[in-house]
Here is the input.
Amino acid sequence: MNQNQLVQDEMRKLIKRSCESDQFLNPHYYSFQKSLLKFFFNCAAVTIDPSEGQLSLYRGDILDQSPGKMYDLNEASTIKISFENLEETLKGCLESSERATRFYRSMLFHYNNVGDVTSDSEITAYA
Here is the structure.
């Protein structure tokens, strides 16, 4: 298994863990989910409504084309996406590019011990 596959597997474990947790008891997992969706959909903000099964994506016109991307939120538009299973939706957002792998490693490093859940296999940023 190569590095990208290992990182993808660890992200799937973290996604599963985040969906098993109550977002109100552990808001860090909610933050993780929103960050993953913002990265995948390239949007300025995200709201997840699990009870309605809906994602709200807030996109603005991009003012600056540099990698940091500045958004003009005065020109924001909202896109609503329905989902039946948040875990599967989040797993479907995983990409296999070099840029995505760097982002996922950062996420794994940041959210590794958020749940303080002991498990047989630790989630790590490096394989």
